[in-house]
Amino acid sequence: MTDVSGHRDSNTSELFQIMRDGQPRTRSELAATTGLARSTVALRIDALMKLGLLRPVSDAISTGGRPSTQFSLNSTGHSVLAVDVGASHVRVAVTDLTGSVFAEVSDRLDIADGPVAVLDKVTSLGTDLLASGESSGRTLLAVGVGLPGPVEHATGRPINPPIMPGWDRYDVAGTLGAHFGVPVLVDNDVNIMALGERQLAWPDVDDLLFVKVATGIGAGVISGGTLRRGAQGTAGDLGHVYVPRGADIYCRCGNRGCLEALASGAALGRQLQTDANEPLTGLDVIERVRRGDIEAIQAVRQAGRDIGEVLTTCVSLMNPSTIVIGGSLSAAGEFLIAGVRESIYTRATPFATQHLEITRSRIGADAAIAGAGVLAIQYALSNERVDSMVASLSA
């Protein structure tokens, strides 16, 4: 039996991070890459194989003598649980360590039913998924959760969420962690959508803004390849940035002139409503746009201009290479995007926009569940967690 007791502080995780790209490598190749002795590399590989994180694959081509064994990421022995909770839905999926979904389920719910009822639904759906089919027998490493409101990421607690009565400071991470027995990471829905969009559609883009336009408006900010949450986790809260055109319009936050009060799906529904007894939703607005309704098209185009006015400041401040527009109102298509582009390309400096791509989400509704999985995987396979798992081998 291989002795791994000397590797408690050996930063075995650094070697593992190299292997996360899925490319098979031999011990000799890893020794050349890391500068470590081949014997040290062998011990670290043995430890990672005991944890089920690496596996042997086909032998390398021989240049004389016995072929060297190659090793690669073992994505099949472990899993994470991804949870997307919306205002009226929940979606739960089990993914492997590359983020590939192999089991999922969704259901209707009302977020206003409160945390006990909603989280009971999550635990029920998650437990059934983990016990069924391909999920069975895998070791669960972490759970990632997205919620439709502000979240204090460090604690996993929602903070004064406007559409989530009864959820303020509720211990979501603790509740789910007690049930599943693994770490639980919680973030707001826009941040996890940004993670998912980048993972599946823009893996080579390090500076990206994902803007969700739906009942509210918010952004997930990825800079230097890292999701930026800010000091309290409120980075990207674009919906409550002041827009002069709306100076006399009240927002649900209590202020006037907020972008959300002008350009969200709910705001457009109010603008286009003709019958006080038949309120329009954002989906109603989209349907009118699809039918070619000129008034709805003009309202959506103006919403794009208002959003673009706020994003112009973001472009000057952060210099992203890509702005992705998602959320339900993005289904209005090029009319919304055209308004965003009009404002940004008119107001931002040519140097900042010469290579800037402004586009609609490529993966749409799948962004949130993918991002919840990424959130869990990033934590579960972090250096600290891997080193902790290695240390447990000799505990």
Task: Write structural notes for this entry.
The chain has 395 residues and is α/β, with parallel strands linked by helices. It has 3 domains: 5-74, Orthogonal Bundle (Arc Repressor Mutant, subunit A); 78-193 and 368-380, Nucleotidyltransferase, domain 5, CATH 3.30.420; 203-361, ATPase, nucleotide binding domain (Nucleotidyltransferase, domain 5). It has helices at residues 12-19, 27-34, 38-50, 115-130, 172-180, 189-201, 259-263, 265-272, 282-290, 294-318, 334-347, 350-353, 366-380, 383-392, and strands at 25-26, 54-57, 70-73, 78-85, 89-95, 101-108, 139-147, 151-152, 157-158, 184-188, 208-213, 217-223, 226-227, 322-326, 357-360. It has a 5-stranded mixed beta sheet, sandwiched between helices. The radius of gyration is 24 Å and the shape is globular.
Number of strands: 15
* Name given to the CATH architecture of the largest domain: 2-Layer Sandwich
Instruction: Report the portion of residues in β strands.
Output: 15-25%
Uncertain parts: 1-9
Structural class per helix/strand content?
A: alpha/beta
Gross geometry: globular
In helices, the fraction of residues equals: 25-40%
Keywords:
395 residues, alpha/beta, Arc Repressor Mutant, subunit A, Nucleotidyltransferase, domain 5, 3 domains, 5-stranded mixed β-sheet, 14 helices, 15 strands, 19% strand
